[in-house]
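Hey team,

Filing this mostly as a record. A colleague (T.K.) asked me to run one chain through the structure pipeline before their review meeting, and I want the input and output archived in the tracker in case anyone asks later how it was produced. No errors, nothing strange. Just documentation.

Input sequence:
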Amino acid sequence: MKHRFAVLDIFRGIFSSLVVLFHMSAFSDTAIINNKFIYNSDLFVDFFFVLSGFVITYSYQSISTGQEFGQFYKKRFFRLYPLHLIVLILFVGIELSKHSASGYVHVNKIENISNNLQTFITNIFLVNSVGFPGIHDVSWNIASWSISAEMIAYMVFGLVMLLINRISFAKNRLLLPVLVIFTASAILFFNTGSFKLDYNFDFGFLRGIVGFFVGVICFNTFDALKNQLFKLGSTLFTFLEIVLLIVVIGFVWQGAVYKNLGFIYEILFFATILVFAFEKGWLSEQLKKSNFLHQTGKYSYSIYMIHTLILSLFNIAFIRVLKFPPSAYAYLFILNYAIIYFASAWTYKNIEMRFNNLGKAKINKEKLITAEKIG
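Output structure:
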C-alpha cells in the first residue's frame, strides 16, 4: 500500500493558497495582503518543487526500463496537462475579447505583447520555462511556467532513475541527484551570475530541476533514517515542527534580502518536508484534524492553475465595474478565495480526475496488450 503523506499534502494546499494571495496583492491595498510575507510568498513555488521530488521519488524510484519511463511520463502528462491546456484556451479567449470588452470596461494591456503566437506555442508544448529568444516575460496563464519546469524535471528524473537502476550507480542513490543539482545550479549561475529564486519564463526550468532533485535527496534521506527517527518521541518532533515553521515564516518575510541566496530556501524546505513527513509532532496532529485543509491540499493543483484567471475576472467585476476600492480586498479576499476554492473543487473532479483516470486506463490497456504479446 502506498503511504499518503497527509500533512505534506496539507502544506501543498496552504502554500498554493499563499501564492493566490501573492498574485492578489497586485490588485489590493490592505495590510492583510500587502505585506512582506505575502509579497515573497512566490517562494513557496520552490516548496512545491522540493515536495514533488520527494513524493515522485517515493512512487517511481524503481523505473528501470524504457517502457516504465514512458508509462511514468504518460501518467504525469495526463495528470497535469489537460487542466493546463483548458486554462490556456480560456486565456486565449479572453485575449481575443479584449477589444470588444474595452468599450464597456477599462482593460489593462489591450495589446499584451507577451501573449503572442510564439509564447502560445511554448505554452502548448510546455517549454515556457526555458527562455527562448524574443520572449521577455511570463505569458498567458502566468503560473504555468512552473508546470513546464515540473515536466522537464520529470524527464530528467526518469533518465536519472534509469541510470541508477540499470548501471553501477545503484549502490549510491545520492550521487546522480547531487550531480544534477550541481550541474543545474552551475548553468544557472553561468547564465545569470546569481542563484536567485525568481526565475520563471527564462531559467525557471533550472530552478525547478534544482528544487525537484533536492526533494529526491530529501526522500532518500527520509527512507534511510525513518526506522531510527520513528523511534524518537513526539515532543522532539513538536519542537522541530514549531522551530521550522517559525524559521520558514521569518525567511519568507525577509525574502527580499535572502532571495539572492536561493539555496537557503532549498535547505529550509528540505528540512521542513523531512520533519513533517513523519507526522509525529503536535502541529501535524492539529493540521490533520481540519477537513478543509485536507480538501485544500486535494484541490491544490487546480487552485494553483486557475487562480490567475479568476483573480483577473474578479478584479474587473469588483474594482472596475462595481467600483470597490482596492482597500476593499481587506474582506473581498475571502469572497475571491472562496470562488477559487469552489471552482477548483469542480475542476479537480471534472478535469483533473477525469483525465487522470483516462490516462490510467490507457496505460493499463497498453500493459495488457504487452503482456498478451509476451504470453
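Quick notes for T.K.: The chain has one domain: 6-374. The chain has 15 helices and no strands.
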